[in-house]
Amino acid sequence: MHRTSRRCLSLVAAAAVTISLPLTVAAAPGKNGNNGPAGAGPQGRAKDVQLQALGTFRTGQFDQGAAEISSFDPATKQLFVVNAQSGAIDVLDASDPVVLQRSSVIEVAGQRAVDGSVVDEGASVNSVKVHGSFVAVAVQAADKVSPGWALFFSTGGGYLGGVRVGSLPDMVTVTGDGRYALTANEGEPADDFSADPEGSVSIIDLSKGVAGIDQRQVRTARFTGYDAARPVPAGVRVFGPDVPVPAGQQPVGRVARNLEPEYITVPKGSSKAYVTLQEANAVATVDLRSATVSDLWAMPGKDNSLPRNAFDASDKDGAVNVKTWPTHMLMMPDSIASYRYRGTDLLVTANEGDAREWGDYAEPIRVKKAKLCAADFPNAAQLQSDANLGRLNMTSTSPMTGDCYRRIDVFGGRSFSILGTDGTPVFESGDLIERTIANLIADGALPRQAWNANNTDNDSFDGRSDDKGPEPEGLAIGKVSGRTYAFVGLERISGVITFDITDPRAVRFVDYASNRDFSADNTALEQDGAGDLGPEGIEFVPADASPDGTPLVIVANEISGSTTAYRVQPKR
Question: According to the UniProt entry, where is the signal peptide (predicted)?
């Protein structure tokens, strides 16, 4: 147990930052559309909020994934936190959010599922979700290509039962009414790329309760239809080695093996789930009643030659250098959440980016190693210098003409997006995240070494500019005093950036919070002496469910192995 002693950096745009890019909205409906004209600025500005760090629990395990995802139970005032290092769930007493302390541990190894399978030693806990009196846990088998499990425990830690799901269940959630639990079965290839299991979504019917759960209550939404009659929509990426499913598993086509569900959101009252397929740069719609994939669409691309989509592309130019480039960003969303605006469900994605790298297959290449088409890049030699685009990682699947690349596709949007449930673009943050961090540094609110830093090294100024930048990964949405906010975790620089998204046509930056200590040397950093590092999971706790009656944001940090509670309070 630790009390948070480091200063929590918390700033408001109006006081500390001048945002230079215009906000953008979709000009017209339609999938895969481009950003439209500049949107209006804030109207009737409400009082801004800030995050105040309250308490932190530290495992003392550096870079072991000892705090990845959290879920809060308002009835028992406990936090359930995924500890991938121990393969268990740490249960934290959060009755006083200033003093978080571990009260118990939920072990998963040795638990028997209803099909007779037993969770093996070495199995990994990937995700947790509390609903009512039970806790749902997604567990990956020790051999990740084998089917995993969804296990259910009481909030007191007692085992209630478990079912078998698809390979590598990476995320679990429960619908608001408690009717269904869902797992995103990522189905990553074997580490040597000798086999590639099917990606899928498991839908577990809980209408009769968790006690006495049966394997027959599990249905699977699959992508096999896209290997048959249904065409794969334009922009959905299916690529890499075509290897079979693991021995003993039902053979499926390449598309079903290639698509890898990452994260799920189910809007309140909806019978649809929306699932990110990160490496494929896509989102799928799953019908919960029929357990089928009812839609699939690619995320809109991002033209970096436009001023609103500028970014820093080099880790070797020695500067904060946000500018336009002749490149094209693939959003590749990780987390996804949803909220309602004027009676319509909207989706929000954190566009982190990710590459496929297994065995001898490595998707990324440096731009300087790529043969660029002279017709498309007449200044290729200049672009390919290390100070320009040379060091930037691009995907080797970028469009080609003959043996040369006619477009440079890069990983991740360094942004967040708001979309309709059919993929219609509503808002794209463009370069807002990098511009905001750059301005905070220019104003002295952040140290220079924070710029596109890595989360395992305090001497890494500009070190991630060539590779996804600040990496927006975790995401939570919450309502405070009638305003709706998106809390976005920046995995690499280790902070939480907050935006007012009440009106998606007038999105505003309002706060940046971090207790990372960039003045600590790397020895201190590795010995739990540099604050929180690598925010992975973010959860919003509304005031009426909070242990102290105020809205909270809970951040689980995978590199520092720490969990911190922040209070969302009015800016003073």
Answer: 1-27
| CATH (one of 1.20.58.480, 3.10.100.10, 2.130.10.10, 3.40.50.300) for 2-354+412-570 | 2.130.10.10
Question: What is d(CA 478, CA 488) in angstroms, rounded to the nearest whole number?
Answer: 11
- Give the tokens for residue 69: 């995802």
Give the pLDDT confidence of 375-413 residue by residue, as tens digits: 999 999 999 999 999 999 999 999 999 999 999 999 999
CA dihedral 180, 285, 502, 554 (to 10 degrees): 50
* pTM of the entire predicted model: 0.92
Q: How far apart are CA 284 and CA 282, in angstroms?
A: 7
Q: Which helix (H) or strand (E) holds 524?
A: helix 522-526
Residues 6+ apart with CB under 8 A from 230: none
How many whole angstroms separate alpha carbon 118 and alpha carbon 109?
8
324 within 8 A of 305, measured Cβ to Cβ = yes
Q: Is the pLDDT of residue 503 over 90?
A: yes
Q: How many helices (H) does the chain have, and how many strands (E)?
A: 5, 41
Q: Cα(361)–Cα(356) distance, rounded to whole angstroms?
A: 8
Q: What is the mean pLDDT of residues 496-502?
A: 98
Backbone angles phi, psi at 545, to 5 degrees: -115, -5
Query: In 428-519, which residue ranges form alpha helices assigned H by DSSP?
Result: 432-442
Torsion over CA: 278, 280, 282, 287 (sign): negative
In the chain, where the domains are located: 2-354+412-570
